[in-house]
Specification:
By secondary structure, this protein is mainly α. Among the domains are: about 45 residues; about 60 residues, no CATH class. Strand 2 and strand 3 form a beta hairpin. Helix 1 runs antiparallel to helix 2 and helix 7 packs antiparallel against helix 8. The protein is elongated and about 135 Å long.
């Protein structure tokens, strides 16, 4: 048995490990000196042994700056349930797509704004109605908030029942003028919608006639006009595909290739 005060087994192990590390460092220094002057297959062999010694000593090469492709807003990683989207504002990945989230927020903002405007118009109409009740005027208030000229109640009913000759002449003149104006005004030509046969709904948003796919497209920002244009373009493409080279050339003049 070792006398009291002598080094324990643990201390001996520490000394042995320190000696091993010192020897490996010396070998590494010698190999690095040889590697500078070596060439050909000897240089390759020395570089392999240097990397092996570095791994044993736990020496790792310094990490340089990231040179990979830049991560864009909305880029994905993973697939299926583990799919995540990159958010450039938080610089983190998240479960939901930040692009669709921002579009939904914008649509919600527009909806709130429109509702507020409608409520203000309704309040304005109700206020005008109350004033008309007090004053005793009859008014046909428009839903849009446009208030036409009021029709006041005339108490002089006898004057209206027995009009004079002067008033008759004036009314006839006014009637003649209105007739002349009607003759002068030309009928406006009603322009036909070229995309009428490609539309599925009357309104721009989601409505009756939308499929599961078109509903999702409209929720993401598409309008019925845009979808109708794409359907018209596809119909022209299908016709050009069957029509031969001349038809396809004409189609490409109208819709050139991207890029």
């Amino acid at each position: 048995m070792a006398p009291r005060g002598s080094s324990t087994a643990g201390e001996k192990l520490k000394v042995r490990n320190a000696k091993k590390i010192a020897d490996r460092k010396k070998r590494l220094a010698n190999l690095q000196a040889k590697h500078k002057n070596a060439s050909g297959p000897d240089k390759v062999r020395l570089s392999r042994s240097i990397t092996a010694l570095k791994n044993q000593l736990g020496i790792k090469p310094p990490k340089g700056p990231y040179t990979g492709p830049k991560i864009k807003h909305g880029d994905t990683k993973g697939h299926g349930r583990k799919k995540e989207y990159y958010n450039s504002s938080t610089k983190k990945y998240q479960k939901t797509n930040p692009i669709t989230d921002s579009k939904k927020a914008a649509l919600e903002k527009d909806r709130i704004k429109k509702n507020k405007e409608a409520e203000e118009k309704i309040a304005k109409i109700n206020k005008q109605k109350q004033q008309d009740k007090i004053t005793g005027t009859k008014r046909f208030a428009d839903i849009r908030g446009n208030n036409p000229t009021p029709n006041p109640v005339n108490n002089n009913s006898q004057q209206n029942q027995n009009p004079t000759t002067e008033t008759k002449v004036k009314t006839n003149e006014v009637k003649d003028k209105t007739v002349d104006k009607k003759e002068v005004v030309e009928k406006k030509e009603v322009k036909k919608d070229p995309l009428a046969k490609y539309r599925r709904t009357k309104e721009e948003g989601v409505g009756k006639g939308d499929t599961r796919i078109t509903k999702k497209l409209k929720k993401s920002g598409f309008t019925e006009t845009r979808l109708a244009k794409l359907r018209a373009k596809n119909a022209e493409f299908q016709a050009a595909k069957k029509g031969g080279k001349a038809a396809m050339k004409k189609y490409r003049e109208k819709y050139p290739k991207r890029g």
